[in-house]
């Protein structure tokens, strides 16, 4: 009898490119370090955990620099000769840009949170520091993993790793009914969306026999006729979970209550990093995995874009300046409207011969939106220190009491509106508008133009409020260094980009895949 040689142990072990996976790995490891360190630090020294978290997020962002020289992939299937390679993790240009957005956004959120946690200390609503930083770092690690994911299983896992800690962060305020209700609403609606997405993933796997995005793209072009409807249903259902994360209508209903109930830095985090997660997932499943089914997702995303921007802007327009938390609610509804603009180029990719250029427009707009929206939330956090109800009317006279903060917030609002001197916002909107026109979606461009005009009213109204005389004396407190750094960084980025707006146009025309 001939002995059969046992397979080599080395052949069964996959090599891992640790440099490629360094950014999300560093964030995750630092999160674990913070969680363990929290057990041994006394109350007086727990403030160190925040600065360790900031350092960890900065290190994770710096880990992107060695990856700029080219695409790297890991966790790949061994392929036969002539067979297309399939990897679960790829660090290409798209991945690096989104990871930079996520990690930089999480870093700014951490700076805002240091001040918020310190202000709440020794009060009935003090936040548990170790748990807070662990949850924030865990969510950031999942958000950084998602744009690198190249199979549906990893995509869904990354989506949940980014989401589950966020539920806890929204409800982390102790003995606060509004916070608990917001977390419950956020959790239940997100779980439902995830279940629908998993059903869609199962349909895709049943029709293609694979979970890797590149192989799904090939297999969907050869689907048997009797499975065509199943594949179409799978494509549509898979988009639901990611549409929920982007707060696209009709999956947006959780946004205003969640933003009001969450700590303000977490509301800022959800408005930027949550959207980055959702849009990354939508881009990957549509452009990379489902290009042959553009006739299914293209019209669906175009309709979602039109509905989302209209619902968001009309609701923002109706906010009353004297209502409690009206400033946060306006930013929440504004973020829904902005999500509609971000969906436009992705929908245009279904009709465009150059999908990469259309996707570049979305990513360029997302980078602009991330900087100025985080900056607006940072100024809102500053005002909330003396005006905890954070009404729009509370911003009257801000220019007199804090002229630099008022000028910065006015600049951020004009960027979101797309008006000078916020040139970067104007150019970002032009790239999105051009993507729709170039793809032949003239009706969508018209809807966008109408919504931009609607948004001008409430952005300009809030900006004007900053320079109106205040009613009574304005309390002035010293601005903590972390909060100053967050406001300053976002202002520098926004002003710098407005000084070189052609960078947006150049970035929008760059291939990311």
Describe this structure in words.
By secondary structure, this protein is mainly α. The protein is built from 20 helices and two strands. It has a two-stranded antiparallel sheet with strand order 1-2. Helix 4 packs parallel to helix 14, helix 10 packs across helix 13 and helix 14 packs across helix 20. The protein is globular and about 70 Å long.
Describe the structure concisely.
With 513 residues, the protein is mostly helical.
Structural class assignment: mainly alpha
- Tell me the number of strands: 2
End-to-end C-alpha gap = 53 Å
> Low-confidence runs (pLDDT<50, min 5 residues)?
1-12
Q: What do the pLDDT scores average to? A: 88
Strand percent estimate: under 5%
Order of helices and strands: HHHEEHHHHHHHHHHHHHHHHH
Total DSSP helices: 20
Q: Helical content, roughly?
A: 55-70%
Looking at the structure, what is the overall shape? Answer: globular
Alpha carbon gyration radius: 23 Å
Largest sheet: 2 strands, antiparallel
Give the topology, please.
Elements lengths: L8 H4 L9 H16 L9 H16 L9 E5 L10 E5 L1 H28 L8 H17 L6 H19 L6 H32 L4 H7 L8 H18 L9 H7 L2 H26 L4 H24 L8 H24 L5 H30 L13 H4 L1 H15 L5 H16 L3 H25 L14 H19 L2 H7 L5
Antiparallel strand pairs: 1-2
Question: Which terms summarize this structure?
Answer:
513 residues, mainly alpha, 2% strand, two-stranded antiparallel sheet, disordered N terminus
